[in-house]
Amino acid sequence: MNVLVYSGPGTSTESVRQCINTLQRLLIPHYAIAPITAEAIIKEPWVSTCALFCMPGGADLGYCKALNGTGTRILKQYVRRGGKYLGFCAGAYFACADIEFEKGNLALEVTGSRELGFFPGLCRGAAFKGFEYNSEVGARFCKLDITSKLLDMGSPDNLRSYFNGGGVFIDSHLLTDQGVDILARYRDKLDIGEEGGKAAAVGCRVGAGYALLVGAHPEFVTGTLEQLSSMGQEGTNGLPENWESNEKQRLMFMSALFKLLGLKSNNSTELKPPHLSDLHLSGLNTGEVTSLLGILREVRSPGRSAATSMVIEAESTTFLFEANGIAPINSMLENFASDNSMTTYVRTYEGAPPEYEKTPHFDILNYFQHLREYQEQSTKKLNYGSPLLYGELMTSTNSIIDKNFKLLQKLPSGFTVVATKQTAARGRGSNAWISPLGGLVFSVVVRHNIKHAVKAPAVFIQYLIALSIVKAIKFYDFGYDRIPIYIKWPNDILIY
Predict the structure, then answer these.
(1) Is the separation of the CB atoms in 104 and 124 below 8 Å?
(2) What is the largest CA-CA distance in the chain?
(3) Do 53 and 181 lie in a common domain?
(4) What residue stretches are annotated with the BPL/LPL catalytic domain (predicted)?
(5) pLDDT tens for each residue of 325-352
(6) Same domain, yes or no: 289 and 187
């Protein structure tokens, strides 16, 4: 099942990043975490495989513009039929029947009704003064007191959470007969008055589903350096004195939220998301990798590359290439990791491929031996299968090239990516999953002439490859024709 994080118009890049990081830390390997765009919400069949839809922080008006109408109708239907919704800050405002944000402040004011209406009342903010768009000037760490419903799920009784412009769920205590539960309250004095209560987080029963809305940002890691340097504040508004202890409390609180939503969460506050493995770039023929690296240097980051290393800062990933399979320098990786949410280290092999000991789940030497034998037997010159980029654990063999056009545009036809396991394998309709050990997971770059796009679309290339694999298995040896192997359109092959 998938946990989807909205990443379309209105979102804050940092909010999306922090949200995905926390979800990965607490929900992997039970769920696949993946972003979803407004277009995908409206046009793709994501609902049946979605365990949780998460709306991060940003600007509520952007959400309205992108999703009002068809998008909100699909979201409402999803939740009413048993789905789960989790909204932080702007994602919480967006899910309320009415909102009042900085009313009377002409530069900031946003008021009006909202289509989702999971919380059947008014959300008023900002709870604490000082908010500015695209700024951390009004950001702070606020104190939250947790109610018994979350305490029963393992939450601490209080914590300090990052806050930047969130609201208060007005008169929540009067809406219990409409399925509203108060989950947390602000402890600090509010700057907008306290006549309507101090509800900082609420749970709302919506048909057969549930929506959980939080005014603050507990999904943000305690003490994110960017936050602290921007706020420049101490005491009440600054970093908690014992931030390590508070970080554990934050994870316990988030884990309790997931359990309340019916999700399976990792219990250990020490657990971190799976560490994506180094990638290994090698080739069948001498000079193949050297030639490719020469082409890739055209898109390298000049100020960040050296004689034996090369950095390519692509759209969603920073790739650090190191010659001759040398292990990464920790300090170098840390420097790049601070600049990009996804940094991938690539060991390059311009001579012999890596030994089996370096890639115990995929014998690259054996693979190239079989590939060479096949090419020698073939009547046509075929270059598919090399160069090869292999990783024991990566997000997705598809995403790592498809989502990084700066890299993709330089890759030759036949370039192949293989993984033993994937943390966010991609499918149709924004579907994603955790691929288990034992599958053959790969993606191949194919330069398909645009003039064939209508009569021979790329999807049929996938289908033909799937057919050829099934045929190869069926005719491999005596008895193999009885293997119950099937194709799930257009390119998944499974046995059941």
Answers:
(1) no
(2) 82
(3) yes
(4) 373-496
(5) 555 444 444 444 434 346 789 999 999 9
(6) no
